[in-house]
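Is this the right way to post structure tokens for a design question? Let me know if I should format differently. Anyway, here goes:
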């Protein structure tokens, strides 16, 4: 068993335990059921005694489920409609996307 096999097993275990159902829709495309891992809630920043809340939510998504995401694509998570602001690979092997989203 090689490193790639071990990574796949590890990824399957993590997503099996932590991922939640969502619906991903590429701009101009058809909706697809996916599994996502929601990350820490929106960031709260302290700026000169004022607390500012970011409206960004982040999710991990398998590249095998969403091969070519783009900014502007949609994500329905629970009852929340979101728009992908930015997507980048979370890992060096390009197996997991990190989606940064905002409310639709």
């Amino acid at each position: 068993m090689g490193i790639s096999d071990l990574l796949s097993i590890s990824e399957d275990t993590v997503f099996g335990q932590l991922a939640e159902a969502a619906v991903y829709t590429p701009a101009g495309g058809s909706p697809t059921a996916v599994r996502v891992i929601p990350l820490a809630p929106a960031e709260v920043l302290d700026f000169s005694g004022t607390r500012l809340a970011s409206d960004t939510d982040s999710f991990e998504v398998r590249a095998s489920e969403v091969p070519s995401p783009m900014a502007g694509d949609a994500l329905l998570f629970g009852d929340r409609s979101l728009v992908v602001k930015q997507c980048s690979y979370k890992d060096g092997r390009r197996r997991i996307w990190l989606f940064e989203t905002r409310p639709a």
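Format looks fine. Someone answered above. Worth noting: The chain has one helix and eight strands. The first helix runs from residue 3 to 18.
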